[in-house]
Amino acid sequence: MDDLETKPEGNKTDNANGDVNPDEDDDDDDDDDKAEEENNEDDGILFYVNKDGLPMKHDTWQRMWSHAAKLYPDAAKTINTIRNTAPEGEVPVAPPPSFSQHTSLPEKLELIQKYISDLQYNHTGTQFFEIRKNRPITGLMDSAKEMIREALPIKCLEAVILATYLTNGMTSLDRFPVSFRTVFGGHEHRHVVLGVHFNGYYGALGMSRRDDLMYKPLTFRSLSDLVLDYVLAYNRYWHDVRKVKIGSKIPHDPHSFVSIEWKQCSLNVMNISRTQLCRDLNRYAREIRSPMAPMKMTEKWPTHLRKGMAYSDAAARAKEDVKLLSKRTRDTSNKLTPTKDQTPDSLKPNSNTPNVDVRSIYVAASAKLKRCRYGG
Questions:
Q1: For residue 246, which of 15, 71, 189, 265 is within the disulfide window of CB 3.0 to 4.6 Å?
Q2: HSE (CB half, 13 Å, CA atoms) of 361?
Q3: What spans are recorded as compositionally biased (Polar residues) (predicted)?
Q4: DSSP per residue over 285-334, as a string?
């Protein structure tokens, strides 16, 4: 999911000419993500994913070397030398970052980025750790622990998961994924970083072949400034940024069963002005900074800017319960206990439960809705 290599001949393109359609609508985001996961496409080229864990199985090991030889035909001799030469001594392992009680949060982010960079970018064409974006956070954190244990080179999507794990517990830090889709030479390329916000400043953590497409220190006063810095970096490499997708705020609970929302806000950069892009990004940034960001974004944001938000059936039922009971509580003259017919079925007390007033039931319903939304 990185940036700057082209797709080899014979792979799929968007049309018969191999060009990207600039008029494509945002509604195809779901299809793009599905195709990306099924085809394991990164940097505009197809790559393999090791789905059998580590150590690798023999077939996966052989396939990795064969694919690397196809990716780098001019380096066949070097690849054979590396493959047939036993390493001398122990291979150095990058130690995970450690913090003292006096380490400031910006300094922690610098140490985390240094650790991610020390793992190095994976150029083999085979992703060592399988990352499924729809997995719950607790499962993705297990993958991050495995990355630390194995200390192998990673790609940008793995770096986002690792950075999320290493910043858990920094509750004053807001974290959200930032994805880019670019076009170069008629081929599409994808990249993702972990955006961060702290004390009024924005930055990012990540992995890339290019230094200016990964880490960004906490120096940007707005989300639009951060994104535009990436856009300018892409332009220096003759890439046209086609779409920018901002995900929702990631909770700090490593045991959460909710999934990361990767594309809460999807903006077609090629079809809107720079002013409109900054306006939409900064509006979304205000929602990210809100303590109740997921609830507000779902209720207030237009459909084309909040892709992928959907509530479970339980959450929908709880929301209806809240609406019904909230309507009844607005009548201050009626403070009677709700009758059996008026009380939502999901909130009816059993025979051993004493009667409670409307306000108590309303508070209970609100708590239920919160648990449904946040997986608590």
A1: 265
A2: 30
A3: 334-355
A4: HHHHHSTTHHHHHHHHS-GGGSTT----HHHHHHHHHHHHHHHHHT-TT-
Taking the alpha carbons of 357, 360, 364, 369 in that order, is the dihedral positive or negative? positive
Domain assignment present for 15 = no
Whether 109 and 232 share a structural domain? yes
Point out which residues pair with 177 in neighbouring strands: 194
- Looking at the structure, do residues 214 and 317 belong to the same domain, yes or no? no
For residue 119, being part of any structural domain is answered with yes
Instruction: Give phi and psi for 78, each to the nearest 5.
Output: -65, -40
Pair (183, 133) in one structural domain = yes
Give the domain range for residue 139.
26-54+92-305
Length of the chain: 376
For CA atoms 131, 134, 138, 141, give the dihedral sign: positive
Q: Does the residue 279 lie in any domain?
A: yes
Q: How remote is the C-alpha of 66 from its chain's centroid? A: 31
User: pLDDT tens track of the chain, all 376 residues?
Assistant: 454 433 333 333 333 333 333 333 444 555 555 544 444 655 556 789 999 999 999 999 999 999 999 989 898 888 888 888 887 778 888 999 999 999 999 999 999 999 999 999 999 999 999 999 999 999 999 999 999 999 999 999 999 999 999 999 999 999 999 999 999 988 899 999 999 999 999 999 999 999 999 999 999 999 999 999 999 999 999 999 999 999 999 999 999 999 999 999 999 999 999 999 999 999 999 988 877 555 334 434 444 444 433 334 445 555 565 566 566 555 544 544 444 455 555 545 454 544 445 555 555 555 555 555 545 4
- Classify 48 as helix, strand or coil: strand
Q: Which residues contact 21 (CB under 8 A, 6 or more apart)?
A: 14, 15
Report if residue 184 sits inside a domain: yes
Q: pTM value?
A: 0.70
Q: Annotated active-site positions, please? A: 156, 191, 208
Angle at 22 (CA atoms; ends 20, 23), nearest 5 degrees = 125
